[in-house]
C-alpha cells in the first residue's frame, strides 16, 4: 500500500482535473474523501480543479443495500450530503452516476472537460486592512 501511495502521487503534477469518487452505498468511502483523497490532492496540486462524484446511485434505494447498511447503523449517502461535502472540499461540481444504469456517466466526463477548458476564476483574496 505504501509503495502504491508513492507511485500514485508521481502522476499528480501532470493532472488537469481530479475526479474524486465515493460510493453512495458506502459511508466509509464518503469519509475517505475528507480524510484521505482530498487532503492528498490538495497537498500535491492545490490549484487543480476537483469534481466530486457519488457513484452507484442505483444502490441508494436498493432494499438489500439499505438493509445491509441499516444493520451497521448506517444509511446511503444522500444527495445533500454529497453537495455539502463538495462545498467543504471546494469542488467545482458535485455529480452522481450509476454505471449499472448508464446514468450520469457522460455528465461526469463533460464536466471534467469543462472544468479544464473553462476554469472557475479563483476568488480574489481579501486584502489585509490595517487601521
TrEMBL record:
Gene3D superfamilies: P-loop containing nucleotide triphosphate hydrolases. GO terms for molecular function: GTP binding; GTPase activity. One of its GO terms (cellular component) is membrane. Keywords: GTP-binding, Membrane, Nucleotide-binding. Its main location: membrane. It is found in: Membrane. GO terms for biological process: small GTPase-mediated signal transduction. It comes from the Eukaryota. InterPro entries: P-loop_NTPase, Small_GTP-bd, Small_GTPase, Small_GTPase_Rho. It holds the Pfam family Ras. This is RHOG protein.
